């Protein structure tokens, strides 16, 4: 009987310690899915915080888009876009990108593409480059890379 109580007590102590460690770590949460990921590099997130007087990389990209010198293209599916996207982004699912659609963006100095993880954006970047575009940047994943650049997600 005493052995059982000791084992139960040890399990409870380990659980409490684990909970304390988990709660003390910095986390990033995706408002759309409600899922949270532990921020393994909190110094990156802190340097891109909105409290900093310097504009973030995300701010600079958004300024270019507002000035119409750049376009931000979301290559995810419509349901993903509705769950959250970059402000001012244009939705063109990867499967819809073709020469005619790509040609509409010739007047922009810079093209930015993104998706959920960066994989579809990589394919989109390649399509733009195959069609003669040289200034195409894969932002990467929305909830990972965009957030690390200091960007916000809007619905």
Q: Can you give a write-up of this model?
A:
22% of the residues are buried. The model is unreliable at 26-50 (pLDDT under 50). The chain contains seven helices and six strands, in the order αββααβαβαβαβα. The termini are far apart. Helix content is 45%, strand content 16%. It has two domains: 2-38; 55-148, Oxidized Rhodanese, domain 1. Strand 3, helix 4 (78-83) and strand 4 (90-91) form a beta-alpha-beta unit. The strands form two sheets. The protein has a four-stranded parallel sheet with strand order 4-3-5-6, with helices on both faces. It is α/β, with parallel strands linked by helices.
How do you describe this structure in short?
The protein is 45% helix and 16% strand. The chain is of the alpha/beta class and 155 residues long. The model is unreliable at 26-50 (pLDDT under 50).
Task: Offer a few descriptive terms.
single chain; 7 helices; 2 domains; 155 residues; two-stranded antiparallel sheet; Oxidized Rhodanese, domain 1; four-stranded parallel beta sheet; alpha/beta
């Amino acid at each position: 009987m005493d052995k059982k109580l000791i084992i139960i007590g040890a399990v409870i102590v380990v659980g409490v310690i684990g909970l304390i460690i988990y709660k003390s770590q910095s986390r990033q949460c995706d408002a759309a899915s409600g899922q949270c990921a532990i921020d393994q590099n909190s110094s990156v997130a802190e340097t891109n915080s909105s409290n900093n007087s310097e504009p973030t990389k995300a701010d600079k990209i958004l300024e270019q888009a507002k000035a119409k010198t750049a376009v931000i293209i979301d290559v995810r599916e419509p349901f993903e876009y509705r769950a959250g996207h970059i402000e001012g982004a244009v939705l063109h699912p990867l499967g819809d990108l073709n020469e005619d659609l790509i040609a509409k963006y010739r007047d922009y100095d810079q093209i930015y593409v993104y998706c959920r993880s960066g994989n579809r954006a990589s394919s989109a970047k390649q399509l733009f480059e195959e069609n003669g575009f040289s200034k195409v940047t894969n932002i990467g994943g929305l909830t990972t890379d965009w957030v690390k650049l200091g960007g916000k997600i809007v619905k």
